[in-house]
Amino acid sequence: MNMNQVNGSAQSNTCGPAFQWKLWIYTNYDCNLRCSYCVAKSSPNVPRRAIGLHNAQRLVDEAVALGFSEIFFTGGEPFVLKEIYEMLAYSSARVKTSVLTNGMLFNSSRLEQLKAIANDNLTLQVSLDGGLAEHHDAYRGRGSWQKTVDSIEILQSSGFRVRISTTETPANTGHIDQVCALHRSLGIPEQDHFIRPLAKRGYSKEGIELEKGNLMPEVTVNLDGVFWHPLSTDADMQISKQVFPLSIAVDRIQQQLDEIASTGRASLMTFT
To answer: Which of 35, 36, 63, 145 could form a disulfide with 68 if both were Cys (CB 3.0 to 4.6 A apart)?
Structure first.
């Protein structure tokens, strides 16, 4: 999904704009890859900082009670966690659920565990940054493109809904049409291919500068608290160090969003 200008949703009772009712949960921060533009600064060597199964389940319960329409599990790479299947099963039994993955870890054992919890509420969102290996591998590592494409086809043949997420980088910016051609050849519909610009956060030294003042919030939680948006869990984007009850941070985000709207500044960007 390309970055858009938005004016908010109808779910707010306030006069100002309302954030999108999507909850993002950082399951962990370690990852089997070290992508050079990763906003979360993930790699195989960083501390795991796992949210834990109990916390994830409580977040799902509170999000459903508050009226959130979809929950996204992200990282790091969520599939390095043994408990990710229980998290996804619990969440998708209650609300639309997506899990973000680089698609590199679906060996037979993981695939069988995933197939055991498959249902219509569960979507896998796979990162794919090129229609050709050279454009994807430039940021994600040699050989990663082929493994990712193979995984997409395996997941589709297993009956899963697969979305593709593409980050536009200097390596692929002139070749986005090739990524689109690839997603079409894989049978993935247009609405299930998201394209976003590079953000200057985390490891990335280039890209769009993002802050609360120009970014539409999407409630994001990790082990350290609640944040404005999943693109950054840096200190300047933190809303609260207290996760529970989630409603406190949700109210605080809406208050800050109303304050931003009252300044008359330009519409906020969506970025997921």
So the answer is: 63
Tokens of 144: 């990663």
Structural domain span for residue 43: 21-263
For residue 9, what pLDDT band results from cuts at 50, 70 and 90? very low
Q: Is 171 helix (H, G, I), strand (E, B) or coil?
A: coil
Amino acid identity at 75: G
70: burial class by Cβ within 10 Å (0-12, 13-18, 19+)? middle
Domain presence at residue 3: no
The end-to-end CA distance of the chain, in Å, is 7
Contact 163, 101 (CB under 8 A): no
User: Is residue 79 one of the residues assigned to a domain?
Assistant: yes
CB 216, CB 270: distance < 8 Å: yes
Question: Ranked by mean pLDDT, which of 10-19, 83-92, 197-206, 250-259 comes out on top?
Answer: 83-92
How much is the CA Rg of the chain, to the nearest whole Å? 18
150 part of a folded domain: yes
| Cβ–Cβ < 8 Å for 25, 74 | yes
pLDDT tops 80 at residue 11: no
203 assigned to some structural domain: yes
Domains in the chain: how many in total? 1
pLDDT tens per residue across span 198-238: 999 999 999 999 999 889 999 999 999 999 999 999 999 99
Cβ proximity of 162 and 106 under 8 Å: no
CATH code of the domain in which 243 resides: 3.20.20.70
- Give residue 195's pLDDT: 94
Quick one: tokens of 12? 């707010």
Best CA proximity match to 154, nearest among 80, 103, 81:
103
Q: How far apart are CA 75 and CA 40, in angstroms?
A: 7
Find out whether 69 and 79 touch, Cβ atoms under 8 Å.
no
